[in-house]
Design goal:
The complex is a heterodimer.
Chain A (H helix, E strand, L loop, with lengths): L3 E2 L10 H7 L15 H21 L6 E4 L2 H15 L7 E5 L4 H12 L3 E5 L9 H7 L4 E5 L13 H10 L5 E5 L11 H4 L3 E5 L10 E5 L14 H4 L7 H16 L1 H22 L3 E3 L10 E6 L4 H10 L2 E2 L15 H5 L4 H5 L1 E5 L6 H20 L2 H7 L1
Parallel strand pairs in A: 1-11, 3-4, 3-5, 5-6, 6-7
Antiparallel strand pairs in A: 2-8, 7-8, 9-10, 10-12
Helix pairs in contact in A: 1-9, 2-9, 3-4, 10-14, 11-14
Chain B lengths: L4 H8 L12 E6 L6 E9 L2 E10 L2 H14 L4 H6 L2 H7 L8 H23 L1
The chains are: A alpha/beta, B alpha+beta.
Chain lengths: 392, 124
């Protein structure tokens, strides 16, 4: 059974055109990009070509791109590397949103233990940061603001350009970082318009390979390497370059940019078709994605009176892959912090299912969901001792 | 996080799911953190649990635990049923992911609640 895949926010399949460009760099052109001989130079050229492609997509200078192992590393490098570059460790203040990815929130927790003050900005009901809250949170000691371009769970797009403008207007220099991991397929990420100093991205979310990503570091920004060794990547990220991965990332980002409008148009149509039908066919459903301000790919629902994980597994048995932000899905029993920050009650958050659509999804696949899901939801509501009482 | 084959089997086709309208007693327990709720109906005759049914609001583990527990309890005496431990259910299911162990406690707690309610009703 071919799986109908609706979990593109978790990862995407590698595009065949990306894979094709990567393959020679595993065997024929296997040289270390730091070697001086011809094989090394071939790899070095391939890495630099990829750097140019990434720079073109972000509208920046290739020298401002550092290749990493992915967004988690890029995010860690910004938080740890920026703080490490500062002379004083006292009175440092950082602002992040409360709906950031763990790869931002965990470094923040770590910095808090070291005495750095962190403000976690609340969000509106749709998950969006309020620029006035940000304004009020700014302090003399604020050195970094980090707000994701778009949220991984509900798909909300944050007002990055507005925030960039606000921060640029301040008397003191406040560095601005955005985690654009989820955004690159759908949004034009022009770092000069966003007015960011740092931007993180990952290959595997844009139909490229896993284990490779990049960080945009605006020229002149202070940053200290956190991984030391062979001085690669402008001495900011030591380690032998992952040449096939970097080549793949370069091609993937080029394709994402070139085919963005076409893909968005297709995905948004499918997504809206899905949302309309699910809301119509399944009573007691809450749509947590603000369709007017979210990525085209996302449709995040809460089904009252059940637990998301049960629905996820039953869908999986029937060949449909989705994800859940609900309790127990991974490490903790608590519902997703993003949903709680949006003011969604734990009972409702527990019944969440996220669909994240991609460029290869078909109408047939969405129709399959629309056919199957109402039955699955009804099945689990039926065995819930509380829900039956409610409807009787 | 990986579920055992047995957990998935119970989850897909749970045994003893439903209600007993003329139950001898009912027990219900909830876990406020994960939001799970477990309700157990028992029918007792001559000190033996002749029938048992469950209703659950919860994840796959909670549903599988309910199903396995009710299998273990059916046709046992009250004392035998009270001796069933959380570990026994986890073993019976071929293990549970660490963060799901609490689901097995909820099942046992609901069963104990039902038996307690039964014994209380007998004294009156």
């Amino acid at each position: 059974m071919k799986i109908a895949y609706f979990d593109h926010s978790a990862t995407t399949p590698v595009d065949s055109r990306v894979l094709k460009e990567m393959v020679p760099y595993f065997q024929e052109k296997f040289g270390n990009a730091s070697s001086i001989h011809s094989l090394g130079r071939i790899s070095e050229l391939a890495v630099e070509k990829a750097r140019q492609r990434v720079a073109q997509a972000l509208h920046c200078d290739p020298l401002e791109i550092i290749f990493t192992s992915g967004s988690t590393e890029s995010n860690n490098l910004v938080f740890k590397g920026l703080i490490a570059s500062l002379k004083t460790k006292n009175k440092i203040h950082i602002i992040v949103s409360s709906v950031e990815h763990d790869s931002v929130l965990e470094p923040c927790t770590d910095l808090e233990r070291q005495g750095v003050a962190i403000t976690y900005l609340p969000v509106k009901k749709n998950g969006m940061v309020d620029i006035n809250d940000l304004k009020k949170s700014l302090r003399k000691e604020t050195i970094l603001v980090s707000i994701m371009t778009a949220n991984n769970e509900v798909g909300i797009i944050q007002p990055i350009e507005e925030i960039g403008k606000l921060l640029a207007k301040q008397k003191q220099k406040i560095f601005f970082h955005t985690d654009a991991t989820q955004a690159l397929n759908a949004l034009e990420c022009d770092v000069s318009k966003m007015k960011v100093d740092f931007l993180s991205l990952s290959g595997h979310k844009i139909y490229g390979p896993k284990g490779v990503g990049a960080l945009f570091v605006k020229k002149g920004s202070p940053l200290k390497a956190i991984q030391l060794g062979g001085h690669q990547e402008n001495n900011l990220r030591s380690g032998t370059r992952n040449v096939p991965g970097i080549v793949g990332l370069g091609k993937a980002i080029e394709l994402a940019k070139k085919e963005r409008l076409k893909n968005n148009k297709k995905i948004i149509k499918l997504r809206n078709f899905l949302v309309k039908n699910i809301l119509e066919k399944i009573p007691g459903t809450v749509l947590n994605t603000d369709l007017s301000r979210s990525l085209p790919s996302h449709a995040h629902f809460s089904f009252l009176g059940l637990e998301g994980e049960a629905v996820l597994l039953e869908l999986d048995f029937q060949g449909i892959a989705v994800s859940t932000g609900s309790a127990c899905s991974s490490k903790s029993l608590e519902p997703s912090e993003t949903l709680i920050a949006m003011g969604i009650s734990p009972e409702i958050a527990h019944g969440s299912i996220r669909f994240s659509l991609g460029k290869n999804n078909t109408k047939k696949e969405v129709e399959k969901v629309i056919k199957i899901l109402p039955k699955i939801v009804a099945k689990f509501r039926k065995i819930n001792p509380l829900y039956q009482k409610n409807i009787n | 996080m990986i579920y055992s084959e047995k957990v998935l089997k119970h989850f897909r086709n749970p045994h003893n799911q439903g209600v007993i309208l003329d139950a001898s007693a009912v027990g219900e327990k909830g876990n406020p953190v994960c939001g799970d709720v477990m309700k157990i109906y028992i029918k007792i005759k001559d000190g033996i649990i002749k029938d048992i049914k469950f209703e659950t609001l919860g994840c796959a583990a909670a549903i599988a635990v309910s199903s396995a527990l009710t299998d273990l309890v059916k046709n046992k005496t009250i004392n035998e049923a009270l001796k069933i431990t959380k570990d026994q259910i986890v073993d019976d299911l071929g293990g549970l992911p660490k963060q799901k162990i609490h689901c097995s406690m909820l099942g046992v707690d609901a069963l104990h609640q039902a038996i307690k309610n039964y014994l209380k009703s007998q004294k009156l």
